[in-house]
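COMPLEX REQUEST
Ligand: zinc ion
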Amino acid sequence: MNSRPFTQLGQFVHYATQHFDLPLLAGGWTDSRPQPEIPGRAVGLSLVLGEVVGSPSLLQLEQETKLPQWQRWVGYPGPISHDTFGYVAERLDPEPLRRAVRWINRKLKRGKAFEAGKVKGLLAVNLDANEQFCSDHRCCQDCLSREITCQNADGQEVKKTQYYHKQVYAQLSGPELSVILDFEPMRQGEEECAAALRLLRRMRQKYGPRFLDVVVVDSWYATGPFLKTVAEGLGWPVVTVLKQERYEVYQEAQALSRGQKPAQVVERDGRQVEIWDVRALRFSDSYTTPVRVVRARERWQQRVQQGLEWVTEAKEQNWLWGVAGDLDSAEGAVIRDLGHGRWKIENHAFGQLTQHWHLTHCAHHHPVAMAALLWIKILAFTLFHAFAILHGKLFRLGRATLQEVRQQIYRSLLCGPPVPLFSG
Ligand SMILES: [Zn+2]
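STATUS: Structure written out below.
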C-alpha cells in the first residue's frame, strides 16, 4: 500500500528516497565490525537524521534513538548508545561516503540545480578552510600543532603548543542552494595550499574537468606555484584576491590604472562599481605566464547612527583580483562578481554549516571517525537543502526558514503519524 507522507519528516524521507535512493546510499556504507549486532544501515541513517534535526552530540543522539518513531525510521527496534555510534564511526570507510556526496552533487548538476549559481554561464568553486578541536593537548595521531603566545594568570606572556585539525573545503554557491563538493584535511608541516592542491587534483579526477569552470580563492592562495598548478596543470582558470604589500603585480596594476578612465561602470547591490582591467602583467618568478588584474572601486551611501541621529555616510572599498588562465572572454564585472562570491555570505554552504550545523564541533575525536562524520554531515546537509530549497513548499513560498523546516522535521518525529518504512 502506498501511504502518502504528510509530515515534514515523511516528505523529506520520501524525497531523499525517490531522488537519491537514500536506503541504497545508507546500505552501501561499510564498517569493519565483524558481526554487527546493530545493522550499519540503522547506525548510518541515525547519524544522517541526527544531523538533519541538529543533534549536537552522540549522547544527545542516543536519547533520540529511544523514540519509537526514530526506531521505525531507521529500521532498528531499540536505542543505539553513543558508544556504538563512536565505535562504528571509527570503523566507517570515509571513501564510499565521499562517493555518495559526489553522486548526489552530480545528480543535482544534471537536474540544473546549480544553474542559478552561475555567473554569466560560469560555475565557480570557492575554497575555504576550517579548524576543529582546538585544544592544549594532543588528542590523536593526526592532530596538527603550532606554537602560540598567550597570557598566564599573572599577565605574563608565555608560549605554548596548541593542537587542532584543519580542512580545506570546496564549495559551490548559489543564491539559495550551496553545496560542498569535497574536502581535504591538512597534514602536519604543510601549507594550506598543499592540501588545496590535493583537493583540486582529486576533484579534477573524480568530478572531471568540465564539472566546473573556474576556481576562486582568497589571497592566501595567491602564490606562483598554486596558480601555475591549477591554471596550467589542472586547466581551471583561477580568480584570486590580491592584497597589497605581498605582490609587485598589485603595485603595478595600481600604477597602470591610476589616472585612467574605468573600463566599465556597473551597479551592484546599490553600489556604484568602477572597473579597471589591466592585462598581461607579470605575477612572480615562480609564475611567469602573464596574468590579468581587475581593480574595482565600489562606492555607496550608508545610513549610520551617530548619537541620537541617523546620518548618511559615503563609503568606499577597493578590490583587486588576479586572474590566471584563460578567462579572457569574461569582462571585468564578471571577474568582480566571481571574486565577491556574489551571493550573500550567509547562504554559503560553509557559513550555513558553521552557523547551524555545528561544523566546528565534531562529535568524536578520532582520525577516521572525524572524516566519516564530516561526510555524513555534508551528505545530510546536501539532502536537506535540496529537499527544502528545490522541493519543499514551505521554504519556497517563504513560509518557513530552513531552520524552521528542520524543527518541523524534528517535531514530526515526536508526534507525527508513523513514517512509512523503507520497503525491502
Ligand atoms: Zn586530533
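REMARKS: The chain has a mean pLDDT of 88. The chain has two domains: 8-107+364-415, 120-341.
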